[in-house]
Amino acid sequence: MFLPLALLVAALCLALAGWAGWFVVADRPVVLRQLWGGAVVEGVLVLQGVVLAVVQATGDQDVDGVLLWGYVVTQLVVVPVAAAWAFAERTRWSSVVLLVAVLTVAFLELRLLQIWAA
After folding, report:
1. Residue range(s) defining the domain that contains residue 94
2. Can you tell me where the transmembrane regions are (predicted)?
3. pLDDT tens-digit series, residues 22-38
């Protein structure tokens, strides 16, 4: 797996988590700019999926494909579902949903690195 891309995903997720956490503390709902931040995270996740597909197709790394792609697909689903939920829920809890979602993606990214290294 391309380590700088994985670190970028984790850094973006943690930055967005900090921003959403600030909104939780301030008792504010998610704003559109945060959802755009989620879209940036999603775009990088799609790019990472393409890179993983190419690397796995070339056979450079022998990993469990079902486990790897289970994590990749889960990451790709979590952010849009959280964004839709946060958009529909216009209370403080929308910020909590976004915070939990991006922290989940950051931890899934760590797990992807572990799977790839095994």
Report:
1. 3-117
2. 36-55, 67-87, 93-113
3. 999 999 999 999 999 99
Domain count, the chain: 1
C-alpha gyration radius of the chain: 15
Indicate yes or no: pTM above 0.90: yes
State both tokens at 79.
Answer: 């952010």
CA 7 to centroid of chain Cα atoms? 11
- DSSP letter at 20? H
**Distances in Å between the alpha carbon of 40 and those of 34, 76, 91?**
10, 12, 23
Give, rounded to a whole angstrom, the gap between the first and last alpha carbons of the chain.
12
**Amino acid letter, 62:** D
